[in-house]
Amino acid sequence: MAFWVGDDFDLQPFPPHTTSTIPLLFADISSRYRPLRSQRSDTMTDWGPVFVAVVLFVLFTPGLLFQLPGRSRLIEFGNFQTSGASILVHSILYFAVICILLLGIQVHMYIGS
């Protein structure tokens, strides 16, 4: 079945009489039954994962606060340099800590009306 994007950016069945819109084909038609934006209830948004990801990205940037492994030592602080090995180590640390915080502890911050 063909769909087109309506004025509220919700998928509507493609009207056969209009030719100005380009039909979009979707395998999953469950989004067709979403309520329009005016009918949606106001829900609070969970900003916990976004906040945790941004803070951890800054903390685990190689060379900003620390670098593991360093160029001349095992760990160096604030040298503003990086290497391929430190990028690999920091990305593994980032992945491990973000999985613990988001999946294990389930950090949530609800912001909204």
From TrEMBL:
<feature type="transmembrane region" description="Helical">
    <location>
        <begin position="87"/>
        <end position="111"/>
    </location>
</feature>
<keyword id="KW-0472">Membrane</keyword>
<dbReference type="InterPro" id="IPR021775">
    <property type="entry name" value="DUF3339"/>
</dbReference>
<feature type="transmembrane region" description="Helical">
    <location>
        <begin position="47"/>
        <end position="66"/>
    </location>
</feature>
<keyword id="KW-1133">Transmembrane helix</keyword>
<keyword id="KW-0812">Transmembrane</keyword>
<protein>
    <recommendedName>
        <fullName>Transmembrane protein</fullName>
    </recommendedName>
</protein>
<dbReference type="Pfam" id="PF11820">
    <property type="entry name" value="DUF3339"/>
</dbReference>
